[in-house]
Design a protein that fits this description.
Bound molecules: protoporphyrin IX containing FE
Radius of gyration: 23 Å
Number of helices: 16
CATH topology: Cytochrome p450
Number of strands: 8
Distance between the termini: 56 Å
Shape: globular
Structural class: alpha+beta
Largest sheet: 4 strands, mixed
Order of helices and strands: EEHHHHHHHHHHHHHEEEEHHEEH
Length: about 425
């Protein structure tokens, strides 16, 4: 380890972890032509995850999919999703008003509804817990598969040819199960989207546009590319935003003074007769800062996604071999006490200026979705600790899970309307 760059070598593989903004910019921005690949993963190939843009190697297929993705998620395109995000944020308020239990499950279903509607045009009535289950399985599988050193097949690719009945090859059973689950993620919402289109019940969607764009261009945009692009949105877009929004609730319980200040801002700007809209954002700098601070305080992808080095390179006098995997330690960058004094404290006053989603191409969509949800919840609800049987608040701590994606461990909470006027506002809102 030298300062902000750590290098680990084992069984012929090199893993480099960079922990500073400068090193990350040097490698991922200034030398992006060398570091835009993903490292080869035998396991990802066996399971079928290479159909997901986030795992694909840097080749023509990746470029094609990335173009299609960006066409639907660049800043000018994401504006089209705002009415849907706003409607769903309001529907979420109503579900919370009716039943406070299972906050995390409710958030998952709410973000699934937005993503599945925008991507596949699925009507609300077709969106159920099966999709939440598909996401939870993928999240768990990916986290387990990418524990460094957990699967020897990554170091000895020939192991993939050993049959599952062979002593010691029990891991192959797990791979089979994961293959079936990965197929579910790529096929089920896709089929459901086509069915909804046939029945005339689908709304306009990325799937519909891709099918139209493919007409006469089948060599460029084929069915596999469409399935991969749409499933990537569903997979990459849901868990990340869900985990961030859940962390926001935790932060609001731990920092009532922040919540109060945001509510004062919302009262002054939005007033008590209506709910917040995206257009209010420029007048809500403190609420906006809460979103930025949530992304910093609880970084849901603490090590980002591994990049692959495409040719031998030299950096600060060291040789980085072709094929090395490079990760950014986003957690340590966003908890660097030099840049963020008392980094564990949730402090929106930092008014972060820089983008907090790394180089995520879904950042504009995530930003809009999280803003409207946070502003809507803060406008009408008080989020506070749950009281125990003696009426004492149950303390909340931000404990985090380890894994590819990091979640805040479930906590107790109480979510109540701020006033009877707020309660009526929620009930009277049209979410059809
Ligand atoms: C809080 C929300 C989110 C966070 C924190 C987040 C974070 C990240 C990070 C750190 C990466 C890895 C970037 C890299 O170094 O290569 C990434 C990649 C990616 N994200 Fe996000 N993301 C979020 C939401 C979304 C949403 C809503 C979408 C889709 C609409 C999305 C789509 C993607 C895709 C497709 C990639 C892979 C890009 C590629 O490999 O070319 N993300 N994200």
């Amino acid at each position: 380890m030298v300062g902000d760059v750590l290098c680990v070598q084992a069984l012929g593989h090199t893993l480099i972890i960079v922990s500073s903004v400068n090193a990350a910019i040097d490698l991922f921005e200034k030398r992006s032509t060398i570091y835009s690949d993903r490292p080869a993963s035998v396991l990802a190939q066996m399971i079928g995850w290479m159909r997901n843009l986030a795992f694909m190697r840097y080749d023509d297929n990746w470029r094609r999919m990335r173009r299609l993705f960006w066409h639907h998620f660049q800043p000018s395109a994401v504006v089209q999703y705002r009415p849907l995000q706003q409607r769903e944020a309001r529907h979420f308020l109503q579900t919370l008003l009716n039943d406070q239990t299972d906050l995390c499950g409710r958030i998952k279903l709410s973000f699934c509804r937005v993503l599945l509607n925008a991507t596949y045009g699925l009507p609300d009535k077709d969106i159920n817990h099966r999709y939440v289950e598909l996401l939870e399985q993928s999240d768990a599988n990916i986290s387990e598969a990418f524990i460094p050193g957990a699967f020897f097949v990554e170091f000895m690719p020939w192991l993939r040819h050993i049959p599952s009945w062979f002593p010691g090859a029990g891991w192959q059973q797990k791979v089979k199960q994961w293959q079936a689950q990965a197929t579910g993620v790529f096929e089920e919402p896709y089929r459901a989207g086509l069915d909804a289109m046939k029945r005339g019940e689908a709304s306009s969607s990325m799937l519909h546009e891709l099918i139209e764009a493919a007409r006469g261009k089948e060599t460029e945009i084929n069915e596999e590319l469409i399935k991969g692009t749409t499933a990537t949105v569903f997979l990459a877009g849901t868990d990340t935003t869900v985990a961030t929004f859940y962390a926001f609730f935790c932060a609001m319980i731990m920092h009532p003074e922040v919540q109060k200040r945001a509510q004062e801002e919302l009262d002054a700007v939005v007033g008590s007769d209506r709910l917040p809209e995206h257009a209010d954002r420029p007048s809500l700098p403190y609420t906006d800062a809460i979103l930025k601070e949530t992304l910093r305080w609880h970084n849901v992808a603490p090590l980002g996604m591994a990049h692959g080095c495409m040719e031998d390179d030299e950096y600060r006098g060291w040789t980085i071999p072709k094929g090395a995997a490079i990760m950014i330690n986003l957690w340590s960058i966003f908890h660097d006490p030099q840049r963020y004094p008392e980094p564990d404290v949730f402090r929106p006053e930092r008014y972060l200026k820089d983008g907090k989603l790394g180089i995520c191409p879904g950042r504009h969509f995530a930003d809009d979705a999280l803003f409207i949800n946070m502003a809507s919840v803060l406008h009408v609800f008080n989020i506070s600790p749950k009281l125990d049987e003696r009426g004492e608040p149950i303390p909340v701590e931000a404990k985090v899970t380890s894994g590819f994606l990091s979640d805040i461990v479930e906590f107790e909470y109480s979510i109540c309307p701020r006033s009877s006027a707020a309660e009526s506002l929620i009930r009277e809102t049209n979410t059809a």
